[in-house]
Amino acid sequence: MTQATQSFKDGFLWGGAVAANQLEGAFNEGGKGLSTADVSPNGIMHPPNFELGEHNLYHQGIDFYSKYKEDIALFAEMGFKAFRFSIAWTRIFPNGDEQTPNEEGLQFYDDVIAELHKHDIEPVITISHYEMPLGLVKNYGGWKNRQVVDFYERFANVLLDRYHDKVKYWMTFNEININLHAPFTGAGLYVENGEVSEQDIYQSIHHQFVASAKAVSYGHELRSDIQIGCMIASMITYPYSSKPEDMQKAMQQDRNTLFFSDVQARGYYPSYVKAMLEQKGITLQMEQDDEAILQAGTVDYIGFSYYMSFVATTDEELLKDSTGGNLLTGVKNPYLKATDWGWQIDPIGLRTVCNQLYDRYQKPLFIVENGMGAVDKLEDGDVVNDDYRIDYLRAHIEQMALAVRDGVDLIGYTSWGPIDLVSASTAELKKRYGYIYVDRDSEGNGSNRRIKKKSFDWYKRVIASNGQNL
Ligand code: BGP
């Protein structure tokens, strides 16, 4: 155990983060419609089948739908101050285009929120996390269709109307920049046997920006102290060498991420994006009020996930040897170790990202995902010795403390998957992040029992000491 030198502020939001389709299960209960995740047997980063296949782990998740009370009690035992979760759009609007919401779906989230409050845990809602109603993909073509902005608006407004006085912290879209890398996941863009066009990708992104800004503005109308953030997957890129060309490439690569927070935090398209779109021959269809909508609906804080850093090089030989994991590939950083899935572990990169984002926007930061996916071994006597996870998290929290000392305004930390859940990129239950082990395998076999890992008590101490006892 080490002592961090710097305290986090009072009320710091320690906790964990999950997404509906990765843990709820009950995919066809309570009036729920089919979502893109329900037909993505290979993981939600991959194009789906359009029909319901037989086995898909997202159908079962870890059955949070019926076990949420037990799970939330465990989070409370760890001392969680906040719990980030997403709303399954298809529980509320089964096909996406209905006029009225499904009351039974809302009731489930009423219950989850009430349970969190019972334990003094602040609910943090992601309105849309890597899924959408399959109906909006099949019948409207996903987010490239402007009408989807209206459907999202209806969905978001129902949630904001119902929960604004119960929930202070919100995010509009999970990892919105991943649209560039996995357009099906975020934007519902899918072309059978073909590439999705860049025109459609950027048009879909524009529609999400407009939809997000509308939700922010509506939230502000309802509650003056509401906090609605963007959520980007931070992907800091280092130049492989001090060669100016490498630096230039790293900067360009980072702009693929910063583009998103720039628009959502500043309220307009930066000149480098306008130039890039022009060079690509892409013309965005904008409605007359869009610029004003973006300007009015800037976010209150910058939410982001952080798992790893990336490296850019112009060296052709090095490029051949690229790795970087199952989510995105990149060049190997010779100074870093990687997880079993090739995600390069870089705690100092988190301090750098915090400084970079705070310098750029001067808005509070909220680290809403971080963690280490690993294969855990359940030993006799219900023991899981996940020291590697503790080491990973400790090293990252130490760097967060240094970022705070640098002057960064950091409001919270919700590590990813506090309870084991289905992986987004692999659709398995092999890659685990939790403090709580779930006895279920990738085929869906197992007792589904919840078992505390070694990291459970460790995180409890971290929270109880407000990040001092690491
Ligand atoms: C983020 C997603 C999450 C989550 C996490 C870990 O990109 O927002 O949904 O799954 O990554 O990824 P994986 O599950 O692939 O290990």
Automatic annotation (TrEMBL):
GO terms for cellular component: cytosol. GO terms for molecular function: beta-glucosidase activity. It comes from the Bacteria. SUPFAM superfamilies: (Trans)glycosidases. The active site is at 369 (nucleophile). GO terms for biological process: carbohydrate catabolic process. Belongs to the glycosyl hydrolase 1 family. NCBIfam families: PRK09593.1, PRK09852.1. This is Glycoside hydrolase family 1 protein. The lineage of its organism: Bacteria, Bacillati, Bacillota, Bacilli, Bacillales.
